[in-house]
Amino acid sequence: SSASELVTEIVQYFDDKIKLNAIEANAMLAGLTMDTKNFTFKTGVRTFEAASYLRRAGADPTSVLQLFQDDMETYTARAETVKNARMIMPGIVLSQCPRGIENAALIAAQAADELLTIRGITASFVLAEIEGDVIISGRSLGNINVQIILEKLGGGGHMSIAGAQLEGITLDEASAMVVEALTEYLREGEEK
After folding, report:
1. Strand 92-96 relative to strand 123-130, pairing
2. What are the tens digits of pLDDT across the range 52-90?
3. Beta carbons within 8 Å of 102's beta carbon, 6+ residues apart
4. What's the rounded Cα separation, in Å, for the pair 24 and 152?
5. Strands 156-157 and 133-140
6. For the CA atoms of the chain, what is the radius of gyration?
7. Taking the CB of residue 177, how many other CB atoms lie within 10 A of it?
């Protein structure tokens, strides 16, 4: 559950003297929206009840949407990253962000999320180079545990959302390491 959902629940149970203003309601709805990836992950009845309360308190979904708008450069870099993805195993894709872009970590995470919206893709790994290091964003619909895979590379996270940072290697070397860790993970699953 997201922090915004929990805070919203707490506010609802306080005395009626506590009233959220529109800015506060928008901020908490933005938190709910982001943490649930637009109400698609980790979303339950309580999440929608919190969103309903925030809407009644003055939250405006259009205003929240505008908070998440990207500039054209970010959008183009993310689209290029998605376009350059290659299938490394059935249902699993790997991509690299264009070199030298601003906000590479954000773009890698967003591209990894977006790749999961493509039919047939159940896991994605997106790499980006930042100041000589390589960061990896791993995402899954749940059938592949990206946390275990990226832990093999010194990273961590959650079963469906994980990351890692590798120092002193190239994007191509890091890509090979991801494929190797994924292969090892799948082999371990077959042995069980």
Report:
1. parallel
2. 999 998 999 999 988 887 789 889 999 999 999 999 999
3. 73, 74
4. 41
5. unpaired
6. 19
7. 18
Q: Which helix (H) or strand (E) holds 50?
A: helix 45-56
CA 100 distance to own-chain centroid: 21
CA distance 133 to 180: 19
Query: Helix or strand or coil: residue 40?
Result: coil
Between CA 23 and CA 68 the distance in angstroms is: 15
Partners of 96 in the β-ladder: 127
Which segments within 33-160 are labelled E, that is strand?
86-89, 92-96, 123-130, 133-140, 156-157
CA pair distance 187, 183, nearest whole angstrom = 6
pTM, rounded to two decimals: 0.79
Q: How far apart are CA 9 and CA 117, in angstroms?
A: 30
CA distance 119 to 18: 45
C-alpha distances in angstroms, 119 versus 29, 81, 97, 100?
Answer: 28, 17, 21, 30
